[in-house]
Amino acid sequence: MRISVPKLYREFASVFGQAGYRCYFVGGAVRDAILGGLPDDWDAATDARPEDVRRLFRSVIPTGIQHGTVTVLWRGTHVETTTFRVEGRYQDGRRPLDVRFTDELVDDLSRRDFTINGMAVDPDSGEVIDPHGGLADLKAGIIRAIGDPLERFAEDGLRCMRAVRFAARLGFSLDPATQTAIPERLSVFQKVSAERVRDELSKILLSGRPALGLGLLESTGLLPLILPELSACRGVGQGGPHRFDVLDHVVASCQAAEPELVQRLSALLHDLGKPACRVEGADGGLAFHGHDTESARLSEAALKRLKYPNDVVNAVVTLVRNHMFDYRPDWTDAAVRRFVNRVGMENVLPLARLRLADLSGVRGEPADPRVVLPLVDRVNELKAKDQAFTLRDLAIGGDELARLGWPKGPVMGRVLAELLDTVLDDPGLNTRERLTSVAQNLKGKYGIE
Ligand code: ATP
Ligand code: MG
Questions:
Q1: H-helix or E-strand containing 313?
Q2: Which has the closest alpha carbon to 16: 41, 46, 42?
Q3: Using one digit for the tens of pLDDT, what is the confidence trace for 271-300?
Q4: Which fold has domain 7-140?
Q5: What sign has the CA pseudo-torsion 247, 252, 253, 254?
Q6: Where are the domains of the chain?
Q7: CB of 369 closer than 6 angstroms to any ligand 1 atom
Q8: How confident is the model at residue 66, as a pLDDT?
Q9: What would the pLDDT profile of 135-153 be if each residue is shown by its tens digit?
Q10: 165 Cβ below 6 A of ligand 1
């Protein structure tokens, strides 16, 4: 098997050759190039020691020098360059305590996680070096640990989740021995830091097949350790038009959601509150009152536990809290303005998208976008007419009210809310003159002279 390495990288490797070192490209780029993709990052492996690499190039950043990795700035790109190494003892199933450099490429390939990630390419000949049968597994669509999976997962518990991630990305299945090793190593997985788990989860959700990944997380026992709130949705029936229990529904919604982190997370978490809010009526009907608020609360706790950054947490929680709306063409303009006022202009489109994903997850069939997207068009039309949606859009503000004799404080807040309410109903009233007179008329009600 031969693949072609881009010229830029071949020339990078030739710098090593001229100095008497060897340089190969390894790992993900080799895998993706064999699959026919165009990798953007080609990671290099060499027998040159980090200090030798620093002498060979002008700009070298010591990104992970204690593990033998440096980043070389090369003609406008970055090349991660790692000295051939084997890993020493592992501490607690997390990271190796020490690494040992080696002169053998094959030793370096053997420390890698899966056969499809354990290949290298000789940049001059294009020949693929494949000591672990990665080519055959790529062809067969199999994720297989290099060596004994029980040992490999004991060394680093994150590999359990990486196996699922590559399956979800590539549409592969797990080799049976690799798959059955995961449930045996859950106690090692539990020692992995939240940040590393978070990054793998995001990659699974952003892959082409989050449903496949989530299914594997569940069947291997990883899911309850990552998101116990989701596992609690298994078996919670929903009735009505729903074909699925709550877990299969949110997984189908996540699969239908746009491949963007906040959308995928929101779709996955939007019904977390349903198990706690489920009430069976006397007639046998099911209700989940308040599940939007409860889902928002549980989503926030779960995302914080997974150490997602605040902007992601806030965006997801806002979408989850507001996901329950049923747009119909007969909504009045006032209803549309009130909706915008409640959810915030910036959330209209993301909410419409989430709603579509949610509807698609009801029966596992794509929902008709015409059910929801006209709401976005109507909001845009009203916005184009410069209509008011929030206090900031009112023709008069607190300062004018103060000049009209209103005292600053809570009463001012209440009258402004009333003015906004008036304007949401009838945008024609949003002029300084009209609002001044509405405010004058309200003085009696608030006991203002
Ligand atoms: P991606 O396109 O997602 O970056 P990748 O294969 O490059 O895919 P990385 O996580 O960037 O994945 O890792 C690069 C390579 O390093 C892998 O292909 C694998 O050979 C090796 N590797 C990474 N993490 C581990 C790990 N935890 N255990 C063993 N080998 C690993
Ligand atoms: Mg990579």
A1: helix 310-321
A2: 46
A3: 999 888 788 888 888 888 888 999 999 999
A4: Beta Polymerase; domain 2 (3.30.460)
A5: positive
A6: 7-140, 146-226, 235-385, 391-446
A7: no
A8: 86
A9: 999 999 999 999 999 999 9
A10: no
